[in-house]
Specification:
This protein is mainly β. 8% of the residues lie in helices and 39% in strands. The protein has helices at residues 41-44, 63-70, 122-126, and strands at 5-16, 22-30, 33-39, 48-55, 77-84, 96-97, 107-113, 119-120, 163-164, 169-181, 186-190, 200-205. The relative contact order is 0.27.
Length: 206
């Protein structure tokens, strides 16, 4: 895994190429992130760096986390993530990660939490077809038969039925960075990202 960066999804808009073609983009406020811990095989059994993002008030962070951050001189942070690496020698605690590590045209994987849509039925959740809409039909959006009869007399695990839709960890792969705004710490990424505006996302180079 490469070293990524944490950011906040701001929303979607569009930009136009020189040829006049509209490109849908998502604007992400990415970083700056602080390297809060270096993990090595000798101390932790694997090599990784831990980064923190999202400065907050001190009263909103518990004391163990505050002590952990004070060791590297970092302000109170509320989001943390590890990125595993084969070599962590080029990083040091307290180092700042910014959008400068990305460039236009680069491909990235973006991970976030999808929008929660509550308890959803068959058609919305699994794209099932509806029943007949004629007057005599008593099955418009009902599930219909859900399993075998007396044997086995139960529903097999994994059966596609109504239930919680969304609010899951989702990764969108191979999205293109259209533009990097270093001054304002913005990444303009082609396409849609998981979550609502204000959602936390992790951006990792492919």
């Amino acid at each position: 895994m490469s070293v990524g960066i944490l950011g906040t999804k701001l929303g979607m808009t569009q930009i136009f190429t020189e040829a006049g073609k509209a490109v849908p983009i998502t604007v992400v406020q990415a970083g700056p992130c602080t390297v809060t811990q270096i993990k090595t095989k000798k101390t932790d059994g694997y090599e990784a760096i831990q980064v923190g993002y999202g400065e907050t008030r001190e009263k909103l962070v518990n004391k163990p986390t505050l002590g952990h951050l004070q060791k590297v001189g970092a302000p109170p942070l509320k989001h943390f993530k590890e990125y595993r690496l084969s070599d962590v020698a080029s990083f040091e605690p307290g180092q700042q990660l910014t959008v400068e590590q990305f460039q236009s045209g680069q491909m990235v994987n973006v991970t976030g939490t999808s929008i929660g849509r509550g308890f959803a039925g068959y058609q919305k959740r699994h794209n099932f077809a509806r029943g007949p809409m004629s007057h005599g039909s008593k099955n418009h959006r009902l599930p219909g038969s859900t399993g075998a009869g007396t044997t086995p007399g139960r529903i097999y695990p994994g059966k596609r039925m109504a239930g919680q839709l969304g609010n899951k960890k989702v990764t969108i792969c191979k999205l293109e960075i259209v533009k990097v705004d270093v001054e304002r710490n913005l990444l303009l990424i082609k396409g849609a990202l998981p979550g609502k505006p204000g959602a936390l996302v992790s951006i990792v180079p492919v």
